[in-house]
Amino acid sequence: MLKRLATSREALLLGAILVLLALISTRFPAFITPSNLVGVFNDTSPLILLALGQMIVILTKCIDLSVAANLALTGMVVALVNVAAPGVPVAVILLVAITLGTIMGMFNGLLVWKVQIPPIVVTLGTMTIYRGIIFLLSDGKWVNAHEMSPAFKAFPRMELLGLPMLSWFGILAVILFYFIMTRTTLGRAFYAVGGNPHAAVYAGINVGYTQFWAYTISGALSGLAGYLWVSRYAVAYVDLAGGFELEVVAACVIGGVSIAGGLGTVAGTLLGALFLGIVKNALPVINISPFWQLAISGAAIIIAVVFNARANRTKGRVILKSAEQTA
Amino acid sequence: MSIASNHSIPDRLQSPLQRRLKSWEMLLLLVAIAIFIANSFASPYFLDAWNLSDATFNFTEKAMIAFAMALLIISGEIDLSVASIIALASTAMGAAVQIGADTPTLIIVGLAVGLAAGAFNGFLVTGLGLPSIVVTIGTMSLFRGIAYIVLGDQAYRGYPASFAYFGQGYVYWVFSFELVLFAMLAILYGILLHKTNFGRAVFAIGNNATGALFSGIRVNRVKFSLFLLTGLMSGVAAICLTSRLGSTRPSIALGWELEVVTMVVLGGVNILGGSGSIPGVVIAAFVMGLVTFGLGLLNVPGIVMSIVIGLLLISVIALPRLWAKMRRKS
């Protein structure tokens, strides 16, 4: 048990993150103070939310390239709602954001499930469509901080037990997803569909329907992140979070989610996102130009995928580990 | 990427599928003609030889990469790093200019960087057996990251006057160098894919890589050369684009990888590999170019064009499937 834990991907990744933190602390000790680490976690929370959604989509052998566009469109809509009706309570805004994100996710899911268009084509298409719609809605204009109501902007910063709400959403999502993936039939279905679609069909799992749900959940999280992002940075515009979809996929890949489907964990995805978040936050403070960030995350993806390939070869895709051990 | 299984029999041997493939190109051609007519009614400035010629810059550079990408996707792989290779090659050329390189040297530098980047992708995919979509998402960040490290927020300028020909020169009257190059490459790639053993091997690998291996096709070698080709074409596109813009920024050609893939898929290439044609990609390039140009003349911003392209992409693929479904039911 202990040996398996020590050699697991998550342990390796955690080790890598700790080494990274240690290296940073030699150059800039203040980086590893608790308050700064909380800040880093807070910064990474939107990435964690989207990466968890992306994880289940990738588990089912699909990919969702529309998450950043979904985030940006939802963010723009709630910002415009806020401008038009500043009195609308945050709870309603949250509901609007999640509903809208869910609808966009469902649209992706339906095209994959019912029309059977390859996932990469669907989300490539909806990505550009969603981005275009932002322009139509906003006429290309920015919604700036002074146009948003104070309550709208304050929510993600609101502190609860010393942590901002934004962080709490990240933590809640991790806990919720841990339970979905390990304790529910839906979670099992995600693994089964990606691990072996044909076997899943014989086990009575509707492959397309499961993929539809993966997209729906990914969309809902993108919508939620859309409001949080826009209210936190207090600005909404067409190119908001441009290219973020690839960072999200990268977090999953670094976290050990196999692009071939069926293999990946919540803990791994969380660590993958944190790895990218720490790199992004640490570069400026240790006096490395942020221009290095892209190259570093690119190299991290390549190294991670080399490791992944090895892990896949030795471990296989076992979804019922406990059952196999007792047998 | 998807669970839909590849066809076990090559499409080219199936006559009904072949017919459907042809009808796809016909459909695209009709779309292109419709857009052309709509454009000429929508704006009096459309039917002008110089304007039309200028409009070709909208797609020629992307289409050069799309040809190589079509082959790669037919073989069942993908290269998302092409736009970053442009940035890398352009940065290298810019750096060469700073130490006084002349035009022939710049061409060699651009092509060499493209080939080297393609070889790197090819090695990771075929040498280490990694999935190309992840590898090239990684190298996409890596290559553009290097461009950012070198350039920061600066730009390289000062390209020699003779270098401008590749992006701004005209070979004959209104036919730009890029348009002529595009036409030549279209013919070359058409022959390569549809008339040679190499092209046959590409289709075979996309349909059944294991089967291809057992029939004596050196799968990894073919795939490696396809990555070299996308790298090389990115180098060619980098030369044209850099010459046209006259400067290099690290954000050059940002997001082009998705437009190139869109062009390929719109051209009827199966994203799962195994089928597709160069004429389809050529028509798709014109469709995308005409849409951009027409909307531009109507003062519709570029971003709205993306809605049209996105809708086009999804509906062109969805409509035949929905239609077939409805016919089965009735």
How would you describe this protein?
The complex is a heterodimer of chains A (327) and B (330). Chain A has a two-stranded antiparallel ribbon. Chain A contains 15 helices and two strands. With 327 residues, chain A is mostly helical. In chain A, a hairpin with a 2-residue loop joins strand 1 and strand 2. Chain A is globular and about 55 Å long. With 330 residues, chain B is an all-alpha fold. Helices cover 72% and strands 2% of the residues of chain B. The radius of gyration of chain B is 20 Å and the shape is globular. Chain B has a two-stranded antiparallel sheet with strand order 1-2. In chain B, 52% of the residues are buried. In chain B, strand 1 and strand 2 form a beta hairpin. The longest helix of chain B is centred in the first third of the chain and has 28 residues. The chains are: A mainly alpha (327), B mainly alpha (330). At the A-B interface, helix 6, helix 12 and helix 14 of A face helix 6, helix 12 and helix 14 of B.
Quick rundown:
Chain A is mostly helical. Helix content of chain A is 74%, strand content 1%.
Residue stretches of chain B low in confidence (pLDDT < 50, at least 5 long) are: 1-14
Q: Mind telling me the C-alpha Rg of chain A?
A: 20 Å
Strand content of chain B: under 5%
Helical proportion of chain B? over 70%
Summed up, the helix count of chain A is 15
Number of strands of chain B: 2
Topology:
The complex is a heterodimer of chains A (327) and B (330).
Chain A (H helix, E strand, L loop, with lengths): L1 H6 L1 H19 L6 H26 L7 H18 L5 H24 L5 H20 L11 H5 L4 E2 L2 E2 H19 L1 H11 L1 H6 L4 H27 L10 H11 L11 H20 L6 H24 L5 H6 L1
Helix pairs in contact in A: 2-13, 3-8, 3-9, 3-11, 3-12, 3-13, 4-5, 4-6, 4-11, 5-11, 8-9, 9-11, 12-13, 12-14, 13-14
Chain B lengths: L14 H28 L6 H7 L4 H15 L7 H17 L4 H25 L4 H20 L13 H4 L1 E3 L2 E2 H19 L1 H11 L1 H6 L4 H27 L10 H11 L11 H20 L4 H28 L1
Antiparallel strand pairs in B: 1-2
